[in-house]
Amino acid sequence: MQGFAGKVAVLTGAGSGIGQALAVELGRSGASVAISDVDTEGLALTEERLKAIGAPVKANRLDVTEREAFQAYADAVKEHFGKVNQVYNNAGIAYSGDVEVTQFKDIERVMDVDFWGVVNGTKVFLPHLIESGDGHVVNISSVFGLFSVPGQAAYNSAKFAVRGFTEALRQEMIRAKHPVKVTTVHPGGIQTAIARNATVAEGLDQAALAQSFDTLAMTPPEKAARIILDGVRRNRARVLVGPDAKILDLIVRITGSGYQRLLRPIMGRL
Ligand SMILES: NC(=O)c1ccc[n+]([C@@H]2O[C@H](COP(=O)([O-])OP(=O)(O)OC[C@H]3O[C@@H](n4cnc5c(N)ncnc54)[C@H](O)[C@@H]3O)[C@@H](O)[C@H]2O)c1
What we know:
Rossmann fold, alpha/beta, binds nicotinamide-adenine-dinucleotide, globular, two-stranded parallel sheet
């Protein structure tokens, strides 16, 4: 894939799934890659794969919710590679449970990782991206940042917030004439470990939920990574990943809030 040679790309949550696939694809395309995750085993595997390709790589344990550590990390990446062109705020967690039975701490945890992690990553790298003269912020939302479903209020909130934050940032960068492009990514079901890593409200069967997710997820992470990077290369404001994401986006745009009624029978079965 063209457009990434010589660029320095930063990826959070790079030890698994979409983040790992993005790291490998960026490495193959000639980018230098700074990868991080809380899962150091998964991260080591991604590092190995990048080294095998011959891509310059810097791997660090980083929890995206730890703002001070994130700031120090951003400065260390700039120091190491001399510049930073792209940041992919990808790290995320999932949680299932109706609002009625969900604890405050469960909602806060999802917001901390899925929303504040994205804000932290954007803010600490933004000065470096502007300085690079050719920057790009790529924030991973979800189709659940386009419409809501029962049992996903916490995740929906975080992913809608990522979309709001990122769409505003894109307009700000254009208005300020900063050399930073901004893309929001909305994946549909991607075949990763996200549901197996998820937590659920008391009384829900985590294994059964993960299994039903695994049968529904249509797109392999490698394909998702190629779609995302193609959107980045074309400076798309919004990237929809997978046929399910495209269909659901269309339904929401055509029906407005009517999607809630329309999707009720399907959501009931899930
Ligand atoms: N898989 C899907 O169907 C799907 C759909 C829409 C959006 N997404 C989003 O894509 C992104 C990647 O998810 P994935 O499907 O590859 O899941 P995954 O579970 O395979 O990978 C997520 C990675 O994030 C890491 N992580 C979790 N908490 C972290 C923290 N506090 N700090 C740093 N790293 C942390 C995990 O250790 C893991 O390696 C997430 O933001 C997710 O919400 C996924």
